[in-house]
Amino acid sequence: MLKQERQAYILHQVNLHNKILSANLCQEMNVSEDTIRRDLLELSTNGKLVKVHGGAMSTSFSHTTAQNETIYASDSKKIIAQKAASLVKDGMFVLTTGGTTIIELARALPAGLKATFLCGSLPALFEYMQHPNIEVIVIGDKLSRNARITVGPQAISQVKAIKADLCFMGINAIDPEHGISDNDWDVVMLKKAMIQTSRHVVGLSIAEKINTIQAIHLSPVSGLHTLITDLPADHERLKPYSDKGLRLL
Amino acid sequence: MLKQERQAYILHQVNLHNKILSANLCQEMNVSEDTIRRDLLELSTNGKLVKVHGGAMSTSFSHTTAQNETIYASDSKKIIAQKAASLVKDGMFVLTTGGTTIIELARALPAGLKATFLCGSLPALFEYMQHPNIEVIVIGDKLSRNARITVGPQAISQVKAIKADLCFMGINAIDPEHGISDNDWDVVMLKKAMIQTSRHVVGLSIAEKINTIQAIHLSPVSGLHTLITDLPADHERLKPYSDKGLRLL
DNA sequence: CAGTTTAATGCAAGTTTATGCGGTTTTTGC
DNA sequence: GCAAAAACCGCATAAACTTGCATTAAACTG
């Protein structure tokens, strides 16, 4: 195993789990603790992670440089991301929205995945670009400042021009009767187009957004094919959705 | 086994697995490690892969694990950025390429500037987004991994659909007779479109790129209206460009 | 066609890099 | 404060790299 490869793996693990134990790493990769420590030292001097006693943590997670906004309900989103990542197979055409859950998904994607991702969210695009075998296609248009995603007619027509195998959609509010809703007109328009043009739409939602409603209606629940939450698939709170024919994960 | 054949095989393996061990290769092909090393050296000087201790990695993989991204000639680029920033006025429509000089420009823009910026470079877009009053428009298409900029027909048609007041173009090579040249086909196509569609094109080039030529011709010097370098405007090395009618800064 | 040139490869000696090991110091949880 | 875990330090070693040179085979030349 190459040194660079090892360091890339370490970095991936750190970004995925926020923290890692060096004891853990040296077992996984069959090298001595010294080597791991040297790797961590190198990575930390380059600012890629923060070394702590017993292992390392991601820079964003570290409180010393906590200018980055910490992700809300980060653990729940990591669980969702793991489930979602397992759906992506080599060669797929994947369309995604933006949002912190999608970013976690991007980090959770398996290292060697060969697929094409289409996205209009700058932070998500950055994460996709970290994967050497992922082809990234940027959806262009006006950048919505609060959503950090491109929105507008150009983006919508670009989305409509493709037929994605899979669409991952961050859900801001979902209710069995009222369906999916959101609070930004432009984003709703874009998501509608995404639902229209994708073979399989997967909604990603943390538990606390289940059974909530927001201002702008986006689609009935039936617009989704699969719903991923941080709850177990057979949780009673999700029953209304499986009754409506959604696959739960 | 022929040399070309061997190198093609190496390249294939690298692109398939993202990395290879030279020990592995010399066993598979029954040649000495020296030969493999020489092959890797040759391939890496041609930019086909990146040589590391113990083997090699694909360029895309090495980009994701790049250790120290220190900006080359950063001071010169800051000087250029300052000069360029003074050209942007409130209300302007500005089109830019990518590159480190452009990123410095983005950082050097006055705080309260109210303008619209169009760009396909992810790192540059991030910088533009830091300015609260700048409207950002993303140029969408396939993301070129080494240039970190969107390229392709969609990007070109998007560029052609607008008439920018000002275009900032990072210059990789410029020569009074041969004009502007570059080393990436897709990027050249995009820059050509930018020159066509902009009212005023400003070239940004550090001194050492003055009077150099690269593989792909982009435009005669007359395609630019202004040339900004880190040299004083009346420097004798720039005289051939002012003779050709360029405004120097 | 013989002699020369050139490219490609392997070999050997010396250097650098990466890694593991033993002993000592520091940190941490109790 | 104490025991255990982890970090640090120096050193040893093996693998990989560099350089220069010899050998071979192919290509070129008069």
From TrEMBL, chains A, B:
The keyword Lipid metabolism does not apply. Residues 3-58 form the HTH deoR-type domain. SMART domains: DeoRC, HTH_DEOR. Pfam families: DeoRC, HTH_DeoR. GO terms for molecular function: DNA binding; DNA-binding transcription factor activity. PROSITE patterns: HTH_DEOR_1, HTH_DEOR_2. The keyword Repressor applies. Keywords: DNA-binding, Repressor, Transcription, Transcription regulation. It comes from the Bacteria. This is DeoR faimly transcriptional regulator. The lineage of its organism: Bacteria, Pseudomonadati, Bacteroidota, Chitinophagia, Chitinophagales.
